[in-house]
Specification:
By secondary structure, this protein is of the alpha/beta class. Helices cover 40% and strands 14% of the residues.
């Protein structure tokens, strides 16, 4: 069908993020009937131009609606409305004989909740519920949670966070980036960002008026020689570059710390899945090499569950103080419940036992997926770590073809094209192997491998 005219407006003075405004407007159009199932939406670039916003804003809105089931299709093949309740006077649709089966999820970035000890999980939630209600938030975070994180980092990441650094609780990586942008940067400042990279971080920076400069990566992560010298900060994922999966070697880590000192910038080290390494001992964290210039971020959303909504930040006392001052002035801070749950799991040894189970489980899942892909002659790249692998493809058309074919056969895949701020230059599929139950993973792996081989 022809693309409909979209009567969308965004209000830059409103407190609601622009991406949320765009998503709300599209939902409203679908509910009112001005958008109907099967309508093709404008490309993210075209709609961004129409609204006068960045393409990342529209991409984030489309991704949210896609996750909610409103949209179908991917970059390169068009984006279509797949669900529309329509106005009340429309005739009732003929019901389907049976509901559609849920898609098997091979999208990267999800945690493996199947190995969580449900008894320990329930005990931790009950313990959090037994705590006395808070009157005032601890702006730096619950002291017991911060102590648990300090111990966790020492035992599992080799970082002595208490040696000259400060540990703060956060509401997750994106929230921490938003706080850093507000507390340490000014609108118009430039931040170097991996390309391709984590687009939610891009959105968090841009929402604060920060200029994001895409910097290419290679098989060893961020290319230091391509970082402009006038940036105020550098964001990277050195343990397992997202989404391509490379690991930054020790020499480049040292060079990055020295470079940041030389230009007077700080480094944001996103260690989103650093605990998930199975082949070798982890390399030294950037925060261990340069605690004066590195801000270390971690999260529970990849090792436990996104339902907790908590992470951590380790930085020098000046940076930590600026974050706490920002929280005091805005009345914000991470919620206490998730912190208390993690603290209980750590105090009773359940967190350490969970990580041991996770490190046993994830290599088996990775091997199953990789072996299946290679049996179809599909190339696999990325370090032996984390919870996803990458299969390169030659073009955006091939990527869109694979995603559409897999979706038709009941599998949800994630392409590399959408992880770019600028024009996509890397194409392929980032295959996550954590979300599905072990019984469903082989089925999804064979479907994905067949679609990739056909492309």
């Amino acid at each position: 069908m022809d693309q409909p005219d979209l009567p969308l407006l965004v209000d830059r003075t409103a407190s609601t993020p622009l991406a949320v405004q765009v998503a709300d407007g599209l939902r409203a159009a679908a509910t009112a009937g001005s958008l109907r199932a099967g309508d093709r939406l404008p490309s993210s670039r075209a709609l961004a131009t129409q609204l006068g916003v960045s393409r990342t804003v529209v991409t984030a809105a489309y991704d949210q609606l896609h996750a909610e089931g409103w949209l179908g299709g991917r970059h390169g093949s068009g984006t279509y409305l797949t669900a529309s309740p329509g106005p009340a006077h429309h005739p009732a649709p003929v019901p389907d004989p049976a509901p559609a089966a849920p898609l098997l999820d091979l999208v990267s970035g999800s945690p493996c909740t199947e190995v969580i000890d449900r008894a320990a999980w329930r005990r931790a939630w009950r313990a959090a519920g037994d705590r006395e209600p808070l009157i005032y938030k601890a702006r730096a975070g619950d002291p017991e949670y911060r102590a648990a994180v300090t111990e966790h980092l020492l035992r599992h990441r080799g970082l002595a966070a208490s040696d000259g650094g400060a540990v703060l609780a956060t509401a997750g990586t994106s929230a921490a980036v938003s706080e850093l942008a507000a507390a340490l940067l000014r609108p118009g400042d430039a931040v170097a960002m991996e390309e391709p990279g984590y687009q939610r971080t891009v959105s968090a920076f841009q929402a604060a008026g920060i200029r994001v400069i895409p910097v290419p990566v290679d098989e060893f992560g961020l290319r230091i020689d391509a970082i402009p010298p006038d940036v105020r900060a550098v964001y990277c994922t050195p343990a397992h570059q997202f989404p391509l999966g490379g690991r930054m070697p020790a020499m480049r880590r040292v060079a990055l710390v020295e470079f940041s000192r030389r230009i007077g910038a700080f480094v944001i080290e996103d260690d989103y899945d650093g605990e998930l390494r199975y082949d070798t001992a982890p390399l030294p964290l950037l925060a261990g090499l340069g605690p004066d210039v590195v801000i270390h971020l971690g999260t529970t959303s990849k090792i436990l569950s996104t339902s907790l909504g908590v992470g951590w930040l380790v930085a020098n006392p000046d940076v930590a103080g600026a974050i706490v001052a920002h929280r005091e002035s805005t009345g914000t801070g991470p919620a206490a419940a998730g912190q208390q749950i993690v603290a209980h799991l750590a105090r009773h040894g359940d967190l350490a036992r969970h990580l041991r189970r996770l490190r046993r489980e994830m290599p088996l899942r990775r091997a199953l997926l990789v072996d299946t892909l290679r049996s179809y002659g599909v190339e696999v790249s990325g370090d032996d770590a984390g919870s996803h692998v990458v299969t390169p493809l030659p073009s955006a058309q091939a990527e869109a073809q694979v995603i559409a074919a897999a979706r038709h056969d009941g599998v949800l895949l994630d392409g590399l094209a959408r992880h770019h701020l600028g024009p996509p230059r890397e194409f392929g599929i980032a295959l996550g192997y954590a979300a599905l139950p072990r019984t469903e993973l082989p089925v999804a792996a064979h479907i994905a491998a067949r679609c990739l081989a056909d492309a």
